[in-house]
Amino acid sequence: MLSLKAFVSIAAMQNNDPEIVSPIGELSDKSNSFAREKFKYLDQASAQCELIVFESKEGNGYLPTPLIHQRKALEFSQWIYIQALDGRLNSDVEVFKSRFLTQFGGQIERFECGTMVSGKQIWMPAFIRYRW
Predict the structure, then answer these.
(1) Cβ–Cβ < 8 Å for 48, 10
(2) Interatomic CA distance for residues 53 and 39, integer angstroms
(3) Exposed end of the chain (fewer CB within 10 Å): N or C?
(4) pLDDT > 70: what percent of the chain?
(5) From residue 48, how far is each of 9, 22, 36, 62, 119 by CA, in Å?
(6) Band (20; pLDDT cuts 50, 70, 90)
(7) How far apart are CA 100 and CA 68, in angstroms?
(8) Measured on CA atoms in the order 9, 11, 17, 22, is the torsion positive or negative?
(9) pTM for the full model?
(10) Strands annotated E in the chain
């Protein structure tokens, strides 16, 4: 089973002030500095999101993130972002879980997410974790 540790960057959510980091979609310089190697992935179908992978491994072996996993992570991220932009998400994590599982529940075995975080007047989960 592939274990993927990644962050999703959303350019429209980033704050250009060098002293301020957006709570959604922006990787701070400090966090960025802890990763020894980062791999960045884009997909035209999920154009507003960039997947930044810190670790991709299977068992004890590290490997490049397979394309199918890149696309699935970006698909989930893009869907979440669009839901947030359209105002369909709020501070209620149960609303998010319900919407996500209605959309993708048939594709994943296990799902969990963090609390909802607000930035630029939209709400998104702090993280998602799933087995696909």
Answers:
(1) yes
(2) 5
(3) N
(4) 85
(5) 9, 16, 25, 27, 16
(6) low
(7) 19
(8) negative
(9) 0.87
(10) 2-9, 39-41, 50-58, 61-62, 110-113, 116-119, 122-125, 128-131
